[in-house]
Amino acid sequence: xxxxxxxxxxxxxxxLPSFKVMEILGRAIDLENAGHKVCHLxxxxxxxxxxxxxxxxxxxxxxxxxxxxxxxxxxxxxxKRIARNYAERxxxxxxxxxxxxxxxxxxxxxxxxxxxxxxxxxxxxxxxxDVVCIASSGYPCYRNILNxxxxxxxxxxxxxxxxxxxxxxxxxxxxxxxxxxxxxxxILSSPSNPTGAMLSPAELKALCEYCDKNGITFISDExxxxxxxxxxxxxxxxxxxxxxxxxxxxxxxxxxxxRLGWMVAPxxxxxxxNRLSQNFYLNAPTLSQLAAIEAFDCREELDKHVATYAVxxxxxxxxxxxxxxxxxxxxxxxxxxxxxxxxxxxxAVTFARDLLExxxxxxTPGIDFEDPASGLGRKRLRFSxxxxxxxITEAMKRLKTFWATYPGRKNKN
Length: 413
Ligand SMILES: Cc1ncc(COP(=O)(O)O)c(C=O)c1O
Hints:
Number of strands: 14
Order of helices and strands: HHEHHEEEHEHEHEHEEEHHHEHEEEH
Shape: globular
Bound molecules: pyridoxal-5'-phosphate
Number of domains: 2
Protein name: Aminotransferase class I/classII large domain-containing protein
Oligomer: single chain
Strand content: 5-15%
Keywords: Aminotransferase, Pyridoxal phosphate, Transferase
CATH superfamily of the largest domain: Type I PLP-dependent aspartate aminotransferase-like (Major domain)
Family: Belongs to the class-I pyridoxal-phosphate-dependent aminotransferase family.
Largest sheet: 7 strands, mixed
Pfam families: Aminotran_1_2
CATH topology of the largest domain: Aspartate Aminotransferase, domain 2
Helix content: 25-40%
Domain Aminotransferase class I/classII large: 38-399
């Protein structure tokens, strides 16, 4: 008798790990559906919705626009508005003076979130077997997508400030050169998820220059730009014409579910990126593209969200300090605090599970973000603080009570 087992999956996906944050989110939603009040500190999803002007524009377009396919590269008014935003927000050195950063709308490609941009960029820029570097503590999907595409992913250990600078990258490039391997690409996010660490403009410039000099394609994930707490930020576009910059409407613009992002790519990659997007998804969601044009004119509303994150960050830092958790990452930008809990806890993964199941507080263990070979994932926890201040405060209250009696603690006193 033939047993119907269904088609088997490809060898490409059989070793693809899940994105743990999404699994924890799924379990948190199950608990909520069962009637529990869950505090969500696991996912980087702003509590606020899209800005009001975006919603108004979307309503209008729903009524008046047939919402057909668009140009694969993205509608021109949106690409022009994105280009204008670079001139409004960033500067570039030209002949000894600082001038607004000019970006050609022809180099902008609108994508289905930054996630869509990663896939297109990796496919356009890298071949199977190419060595691509990532930070040892970083966003897990870089590693997972690159591995699925057959790239050779190499972790660059972050320095004691949780950063990868030209210094850390060059050490890895030299080590690999001894094995006759050449680094083809680098992808980093600054501000970083999960650490919040930010490269200073000078560090970013040095990194861009190093990559240019060594023929390394630098992909700068700038999704957390405009969410920072006193540090200055720069775009890699200010320092090199060879970088690929990726950004999204998900974080600062508070539009996660609209699935919209963009990239700015060198002219040499644009035709390939366009052919890929034409074949892969035809175009990014039309309604989102039309409405997102308004997002750039909502700075007052969006900066209020950032002010709330700053309050939440202070609440969280104070609460962790109160528990004796002092080993935390810099948290200069984005909306995450990454804490090393190994002095106090046997295992961060078990703790995160127990905290969710028993106290209904969802946080993410480091296993998502760390090089699997390092073992650091079981020592670290990431707290996301883009929710409402009341939710963060309530979560810290529950954490304190849970912590006091938790049996998995090493140094209970
Ligand atoms: C560093 C980083 N890049 C990219 C993404 C993906 O965002 P999206 O596809 O919604 O633009 C995330 C999501 O959390 C992230 O943290």
